[in-house]
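Quick note —
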Amino acid sequence: MVNVPYSSSSSGFHSDGVLVQNDCSSSSLSLREVLLAYVTKGNDILVLGSLSVLATLLQTKELDESMLDGLGILPQRKQHKKLLLQALVGEGSGEEQLFSSKSSLSKDVIGNDINVYHQKIKEQYGVSFLPSDVGISSHVHRFQVIDALVSLCCRSNISADILWDGGWLLRQLLPYSESEFNSHHLELLKVSYKNYASAFEEEVRGIWSDFLISVLCDEWRKCKRAMESSSPRKELNCILLLPRKFSSEEGSSFAAGERMHELVKVFVLLHQLQIFTLGRALSEQPTIYPPGDLPANCHARGSGFDVSDPKAGTEVSLGNAVPCRIAFERGKECHFCFLAISLGISGWLILAEELPLKKSYGVVRAVAPLAGCNPGIDDKHATWLHLRIRSSSLPFLDPVQFEDYGKKKTKASIDGSWTLAFRDEETCKSAFLMIVEEINFLSDEVHRRLKPLLNLETAIDLSRASVCDPEDSSSYRTHPK
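Predicted structure written out below.
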């Protein structure tokens, strides 16, 4: 028996104040009620543990379906199947029961089955159950479970992986009956979705905007597989260990990348749940636009730059480049030509060395990501331009490269910086404006491609004709329209 403070409500369940507390003597709640209380109010580990118990009960072959219905976790497909069989053999009210919005199994049968299980547990383990929800119909129980899972999916203080587990369980139980999954639930999910969509849209101009679409497409596929799977996640460590918290220093580009990753995962879950609740099939890829044409005035055109991943040693036109100086080591100043270039949803900062025998051309000596460079002219030296240099990837995108990430502070997890010195203030400002312009080109292209997904109605209408190609997520066209 689990003792927790209890406050009655019209639905037979009230979660406020029923979580772990020292005073547990005022009344008794059933284990089912405690699990739902943890789902709606508990921390990550309590939510995950409760979801694991519910998922285990849902999938176990030892429990009769009437028992699952009594607990409120009988999948709708099994409810429908059982009622069809009853209608065929003439049990109960048959067809009337099948098409009723409040159709459920006989309360007497369910109550007897639950009593049998309680008696077996008492005989085998010596534990007596005095559930406070005895006598409440399975319809009410199903409503309570769905209500708790919807509330969970709208929580902002639970990790994305655990929300995915809650989303999986909710999808298993989504009923046809509006009396169980009603307009209030739809509105809660829609409001939460809009909040995350707004935050997701802000990432278009974030530190990792150049990875936003590729992360979105990747997490869409993963979430779709997880939601449509016959069972939830099977990793034991996700139950035994607390979910990994952000391990990067606050304010670093890696911390921003981890937050972006979590945000995308929750946004994808809420978007897919919107589609599920409408009875629509999920597309293999999110509904986004294909790569567009390069802007006529972007520097990629003038530089003759047409590779998706520039490397040191690449030859590049210096027609739009700005001469500068930089010291990578103390006392060793180098002269380079600086370029900021965007190609579709990718972009780079380039330092090139001029070729002595081929004027106006140079060889790339250093490359850094354009997104997140946060350009700023020095307050005291108007000819100095400061740039933040983040990593070219993230641990969850390239686990091999970041094998030691999280165990210790590695060089790759610390943001670098460039300080470029120009011959005069005007040249420095010109370089600054070049960077800002190319960042805007990149962000505008990311936003353009994501636009149909950010409008829920449009995304749902176009979901059957998704146009995202993960192999082409960073490609572009150089020919004019």
